Description:
This protein is 48% helix and 14% strand. With 284 residues, the protein is of the alpha+beta class.
Amino acid sequence: MMKENISRTEVEILRLFPGAQTTVSHIAEVLEMDISWASRCVSNLVELGFLEREKKGREVFINVVDAPLGTALNNLLMEEPAMNLHALIGGTSLRILPLLLEPGFSAQDIVRRSNLTLKTVYARLKRWRGMGVAVKSGDAYVLNPRAPLVIEFAREYIRSRNLIHQREHNPDAAIVWQDRDDYIISTREVFSDGGFRTAGPPRLAEEGYDIAFRNYYYYHSPIRYEISEAEALVQTLKFDINNPRPLKYIQEAIKNRKVTKNELRKYAKKYGVEKRIEEALQWS
């Protein structure tokens, strides 16, 4: 499990990039630090998905990872060289920053999802608002639309983090949907893990629906989250878009007052299937 905590030294190591290829010994020399400490810092940045090692002969070189997260990091370092990078990503900031992607969360929700204290969360939010990185919208804190490179970085970081987490728990699965630190995986086999909840067609089967499926779907969230019947119906519609049966089940569930139209519309927005839900609702 990633410790998801970046030291000031590790931030300085990232500052040696973008685009450059270096070695641990060079990092230690430039930053005037012990080579064993430089190696540990690099290892943490590799584990977090920012850097990667490449062996050439007897030499091991360090690069920014060749992935969307690496591109986003390079863009941030090149286009915003004056930004206080430690204030943005240092310490436990990476537990909070992606949660501010649209539509954001309240401070209390951030505490629940990040497992940090309210004092720590408020301190970060205050600092970021002062930097112009974050703004408050109603009760929610969100990343400032005028900071597109920060938004790109936060988005690619959380996608990378979700992928690392998924591979740790089920390397044969695939992420089929994600929203910040929540995501759904698809797998051909039954999967049992306390951090994942049955979703989509298998969840409907648990509710007694007569539905066939080839893949199993599981929902991960850092908070305890149960998939309701309404949400499972919308998930099934999304993951089996050409199957007419979910539409029929939605209409029957409304008729039998097992779900409401408002519930379905809420989840349709979450999963991006508003048009399909409206097609079902117009006949209900």
